[in-house]
Design brief:
CATH class of the largest domain: Alpha Beta
Structural class: mainly beta
CATH architecture of the largest domain: Alpha-Beta Complex
Largest sheet: 14 strands, antiparallel
Shape: globular
Distance between the termini: 50 Å
Number of helices: 7
Helix content: 10-25%
Number of domains: 3
CATH topology of the largest domain: Cathepsin B, Chain A
CATH superfamily of the largest domain: Cysteine proteinases
Number of strands: 32
Radius of gyration: 23 Å
Length: about 500
């Protein structure tokens, strides 16, 4: 699971090497302590210091189940010139919060970005992680199943590894066929779905896109930490890392796809591709002209046309050495608090319009708010360096500081952290002429609510009779949770 520049804590034995404050390890996961029949409101897990190759940048990953009312917050610090920097937070995370990555800030040699920490003119030799667990409900706890760190090593000759000729069968999807409102983050979400759905998960890219979205970001910079957290929430161990060709070849050799970041050429950008896009690596082809085999969501307008290849030399030029690695779903399945699918009934509202349908959960109508599909608000302006002490808290080894676990107050939701009430996706589909391997391969029609309901189709002209068709409706909340229902019309 690890390479020399990547350190992963996963399962009981690894977690027990760290320091536990108001938390414990149960069934291979970090959870809050249970006291007098209720969970404590907050706790902290701190990893041991991790020696790593000399590095100038760092990424943190975590996989956690966070039911509504709970959250986790990962932090890291590094050793520079023999001294530890202050702790840097990568944002409080839960699908049910309006998630925000780290506010960009510079403090000394440390440049903190939404999902990474970069050192300016300095290098580090060690890193240390900690993760806070919060709950507002004494009967519910978040659970952390994986914590990891990966660094960008300096002065290291990239390893190529042993060549391999292999092809994995990933699920291809095109950005052009997905929800237009989520297009800026859809390539990364599609890649997550490509990897998970090959193992039978049948997750829509829109579910991933909403669950991993960084509300602080402009979406031009996708948050890899949040993407790994979203995949982990569905039960697939996942982490972000810096890698080399040897890492990619070893992952493919083991039967795992990898998500890679590719820098688009000026010609590709002129054709509509973003400067940085994400693709799923599905194998390598050897021979006179070795190539990397990809699922590139921006490469074509149709799903199966996104299966492309790049000559290996061109791929290595385009690849920015970032990767998202994933493993098969844990036997226990999705983590507690994973965004769920709920079945709904669809009933015609003839008094309003013959093609308008209301959604019901049991016997209760689920009214879709008018702003269900409204755009998210513009991200907040980044704080000035001197205005961001919360993201650079003092180390926990100073017991008299307010940052020590015993003295940290239970966080209260601010307006930006409360569960969002807009930014969802509403769509419908019918059965296509041919069956598909996954639901996401269907033709989706993206719409907005009307009077709390959904309009499905224009009724046939009077005097005509059409064959009944099965319609499926998908109402995806900003958390990634989804209401889904069928009706014959």
């Amino acid at each position: 699971m690890e390479s020399k520049n990547t350190f992963i804590l996963h399962e009981t034995e690894a977690f027990m090497r760290g320091e536990l404050d108001n938390v414990t390890v149960a069934h291979g996961r970090i959870v809050l302590d249970l006291v007098s029949g209720g969970y404590v409101p907050y706790g902290c897990y701190t990893s041991p210091a991790v020696p790593l190759p000399t590095f100038d940048a760092l990424r943190v990953s975590w996989n956690a189940g966070t039911p509504p009312g709970t959250a986790v917050e990962a932090q890291a610090r590094v050793m520079v010139d023999g001294n530890w920097t202050s702790w840097s937070s990568f944002g409080r995370w839960s699908p049910y919060l309006e998630r925000e990555g780290a506010a960009p800030v510079t403090k000394g040699a440390v440049n903190l970005l939404p999902d990474s920490l970069v050192l300016d003119s300095k290098t580090a030799t060690q890193a240390q992680l900690r993760i806070y667990l919060y709950t507002k409900d004494e009967h519910t706890t978040p659970s952390v199943s994986l914590v990891g760190v990966s660094v960008r090593a300096v002065d290291v000759i990239p390893a190529g590894g042993r060549p391999i000729n292999a092809r994995l069968h990933l699920m291809p999807y095109a950005v052009a066929r997905r929800a237009p409102a989520l297009q800026p983050v859809m390539d990364l979400a599609i890649c997550l779905a490509s990897l998970t759905n090959r193992w039978g998960a049948d997750i829509l890219p829109e579910e991933f896109a909403l669950a991993m979205r960084d509300c602080r970001s402009t979406d031009a910079e996708r948050n890899l930490s949040f993407a790994a957290a979203a995949a982990g929430c569905w039960g697939f161990p996942c982490w972000a890392c810096w890698g080399n060709l040897a890492l990619l070849r070893s992952e493919v050799r083991a039967g795992y796809g990898v998500i890679v970041g590719l820098e688009s050429t000026p010609a590709q950008q002129a054709a509509g591709m973003p400067p940085l896009r994400y693709a799923a690596l599905r194998g390598f082809r050897q021979g006179a002209q070795p190539a990397a085999l990809l699922v590139d969501p921006y490469a074509a307008a149709e799903d199966f046309d996104t299966e492309t290849e790049l000559l290996l030399d061109d791929f290595l030029v385009a690849w920015n050495n970032t990767a998202l690695c994933m493993r098969k779903r844990d036997p226990d399945g999705a983590l507690p608090g994973c965004p769920a699918r709920t079945s709904a009934w669809l009933r015609r509202v003839p008094k309003v319009a013959p093609d308008l349908f209301a959604m019901y959960i049991g016997s209760t109508q689920h009214v879709l708010p008018d702003d269900f599909c409204a755009a998210l608000p513009a991200p907040a302006a980044p704080a000035a360096p001197e205005e961001a002490p919360a993201e650079d808290a003092a180390p926990t080894d100073a017991p008299d500081t307010p940052d020590s676990p015993a003295e940290i107050p239970v966080p209260q939701e601010t307006a930006s952290q409360a569960a969002p009430v807009h930014g969802g996706i509403l769509a419908w589909s019918t059965l296509d002429e041919h069956p598909h391997a996954t639901t996401a391969h269907r033709q989706f029609h993206y719409v907005t609510p009307e009077q709390g309901c959904i309009r499905l189709a224009v009724p046939p002209p009077p005097g005509t009779r059409a064959e009944p068709r099965k319609y499926t409706v998908y109402a995806i909340e900003p958390s990634g949770s989804m209401l889904v229902g069928d009706v014959m019309i």
